[in-house]
Amino acid sequence: MSWKTLLLLLIPALAVAAEPAPTSGPSSAQLSQDHIVTDTVTTYGMGLGAQRWSPLDAINRDNVANLVPAWTTALETDRGQEGQPLLYDGKLFVVTHEATFALDARTGRKLWRNKLRYNKKMLRMVCCGFVSRGLVMADGKLFRQTLDNHVMAIDMETGETLWKQLASDWQEGYTMTGTPLMANGVLITGTAGGDMGTRGFLDGWNPETGEKLWRFWTTAAPGEPGGDTWEGDTYLRGGGATWLAGSYDPELNLVYWGLGNPGPWNANMRPGDNLYTDTIVAMRPETGEMVWHYQVVPNDTYDYDSVNELIHATLEIDGKPRKVIIQANRNGYVYVLDRATGELLRASQYVDKLTWADGIDMTTGRPILSDSTRKNLTGEEVTVWPSNIGGKNWAPASFSPKTKLLYLNGLEISMQFKPVVMAWRKGVAYASAEFSFPEPKPGVPMGYLRAVDPLTGERVWQTPVDPPANGGTLATAGNLVFTGLQTGELAAYDMDNGHLLWQHQTGSGIIAPPITYTLDGEQYVAIQSGIGGLLAWFLPNPKFAEVAKGASITVFKLFKPWSAQ
């Protein structure tokens, strides 16, 4: 063969090789469209509206008993796992507190690992657990936050770090455990550490370059709107952490974020409403400008936070469909707000026992404090329901557009609480309270999987769970609710009545939310497991002694006989 003939044969191949490889991952513009896609999972919450709902029904109440593991992969740590995986182009992207992985979604084989290195002194000061809750993807990049307060972009194909920016100083008590949000081409991140005497914030970033675009401080300074709700310089140590991800409405171009509790917990040390702590805010993603706010608990003294997921839904209220956001707050009330204006439409008790308030004044939106809470503010120790662990904890709820119900892991736990006075010290927990929880009693459930009507708080059904579950839920069109148990089982319940239909023991306790998706025409369910978290720490239970440590991800699909494959 002559060199000319060889060249003619090679030219087409060279031309193909010279073409740029297609960018993997959805574009920022695509991520600004909130629609449910069944063969990708590109956002935290299974969509920008954080419903954790899937229209998939290949796995359903009639065949879920045939669900079996497809594969399991170890994640190289024994810390607790609260992460939600993402799926794109046949790859699962998984995050732990110290690494990011790309896995072959068909086999679990590790394709690459991006490993983090932390200062050992920093690890002794971490406020809020050795966890990372997830990633977001856009334009061929994965974006995550780190415990030492970096925001980073990772190449989806290679695992290479593309940029890494410092958001705050861990020595001041800050840390980052949450998940970023992509909204209209802006990457938005929050921070943890609100109980360490820090001042909370949200940051907006250019996802291409890592340039910081804006910062929104969650405690108002003197001269700013809301600045008169703080006394002196208490706003500088006022908390307001932003440690759970927000949601986004592309039609209104509004980002919704729940802001955390004020610090310290002793409300007498910071008189005033303490804006914008314990507040739901709506803001413009391009600038961080606040459009509206609703303060859930002014001058909160019980660490109730308002960081829980903000779920988008359309509900009929007073005979008219209303576009709303829903939050099942730790304080035991479920709130329904108009998505465009922030108008409070409903506030209903969703726990069995609640003593800190006597209700919500629907004219002012403020809680009606109980005599018990008023006694507590004088320094008297009281029993409080729910505890600061909450009527539900961080674990995200799901919402079904079919049933119009929330599915959540609810808690019935009290605490003994007494405010005390303490001095602020940099990088040290700043609670200013003494508190304790009751010992678990055999036969008395502390936890329930609940179906809740967000307009009334009615528990349509509830199933006891012992020990209490602290992983998220997933609702599907197969009439199923999936959730993980701290004893290690991934479980599926009948959406209509809460009956347990199936469960499978994973490698460790589950405190993470499940996802579902299709691949090669089959439906899968994936979950990270790894015991840890607040409930396992504060509520010792004999069953925890039987739970092995060790992080992994397990993927399930329906069993097929060899003859059918």
Task: Characterise the protein shown here.
By secondary structure, the protein is mostly beta strands. It has a single domain, classed as Quinoprotein alcohol dehydrogenase-like superfamily (Methanol Dehydrogenase, Chain A), CATH 2.140.10.10. The chain contains 5 helices and 38 strands. The chain is globular.
Topology:
Layout (H helix, E strand, L loop, with lengths): L2 H16 L9 H4 L21 E2 L12 E8 L11 E3 L2 E5 L3 E6 L5 E6 L4 H4 L12 E3 L2 E5 L4 E6 L5 E6 L14 E3 L2 E4 L11 E5 L6 E6 L29 E3 L4 E5 L20 E5 L6 E6 L15 E7 L2 E9 L4 E6 L5 E6 L7 E4 L6 E3 L1 H7 L4 E3 L13 E3 L4 E7 L3 E5 L13 E4 L10 E6 L6 E7 L7 E4 L3 E5 L4 E6 L5 E6 L9 E5 L2 E8 L4 H5 L13 E7 L7
Parallel strand pairs: 1-32
Antiparallel strand pairs: 2-38, 3-4, 4-5, 5-6, 7-8, 8-9, 9-10, 11-12, 12-13, 13-14, 15-16, 16-17, 17-18, 19-20, 20-21, 21-22, 23-24, 25-28, 26-27, 27-30, 28-29, 30-31, 32-33, 33-34, 34-35, 36-37, 37-38
Number of helical stretches of at least 4 residues? 5
CATH superfamily: Quinoprotein alcohol dehydrogenase-like superfamily
Classified by CATH, the class is Mainly Beta
Cα radius of gyration in angstroms? 24 Å
Structural class: mainly beta
Indicate the CATH topology: Methanol Dehydrogenase, Chain A
Amount of helix: under 10%
As laid out across the biggest beta sheet, the strand order is 1-32-33-34-35
Total discrete domains: 1
Estimate the strand proportion.
35-45%
Work out the number of β strands.
Answer: 38
Task: Give the overall pLDDT as a whole number.
Answer: 93
The major sheet is characterized as: 5 strands, mixed
The rough form would be described as: globular
In CATH, the architecture is: 8 Propeller
Termini separation comes to: 46 Å
Catalogue the unreliable spans.
1-23
